[in-house]
Amino acid sequence: MAVPVQVDDTDPRIKYSGKFGSTTVGNIRVNATTHRAVTNGSTISFSFNGTAVAWIAAIPGPPDSDGQPSVVEFVVDDDPETASTVIAPHPISVEHRATVYSSPPLPSGEHKIVVTMLDAHGDNLWFDFLEYTPDDDEDLSSSPATTMTSSAVQATSSTTQDILSAVQTPSSPLSATDAPPESNLHPSLPPTTSTTSRSRQQPSSPAQLPKKTGKETTILAAALGSCAGVLLVFLAIVAWKRRQKQRKDQQLDTHVDPFKPEDGFRGGLGRETAPPAPPSVHLGESEARAVEYESRSGGPPPSYATLPP
Question: What keywords are assigned to this protein (predicted)?
């Protein structure tokens, strides 16, 4: 959506025809300047590319001593059907940035507005600035009318403060949001917007979301790495102990002492037992005598001839 553009009354693209007077009022009007038609039939013309235009003026107060207000005619593109005659109102006190005329929607393209003072009366109507809505494809950065001088910007910001200071009372202070909207100068005109809404405002950039810095990312990575390392060490210790236990359970004692007859036998309860006796042999009478003799004499028994019976 195109942003409305303000064109101050001192802009060289605004053409004046007839007799005009100018004033300089600090911090009250845009760029602190205004123009007033002195003679009837004086005109103000301005060409632009856009879809709407408005004419804003300052109304110092009631009409002059003859009691007659100023009468102004507005025509767009020299079309009589667009002609609109406006009679300046009778404000009780000064009105700044009053929208005297606002055009209906216009087709996109080049247009021209001509303002003619039909009946000029004293200090009844002072032209302050024009405001038009440019085409969407218009290059605002290359047009001198799209930018305001630093003094105009300061005047714009200071005007609201001055107006509020003038209307504030000790018992009921007003804030910027409490300022009353400007009244229409003609019953048939659409409601005018407040002074603050007509100031050019640059779209504010979206709030920047907080971003994680490299330092925070490094700390997070180090913490995760430390946790992973501790976990791996713990698992390794558990696995090592489990393997040691399995080896210990499976280990067998392979040491066997050699058997010695003189040591005897050890039973299941560790008691020594005598070796088993050799099998008994039944000897005859002669063999028994020989054995007995041998054990007594220490030698073999003598041999005897056995006679037949």
Answer: Membrane, Transmembrane, Transmembrane helix
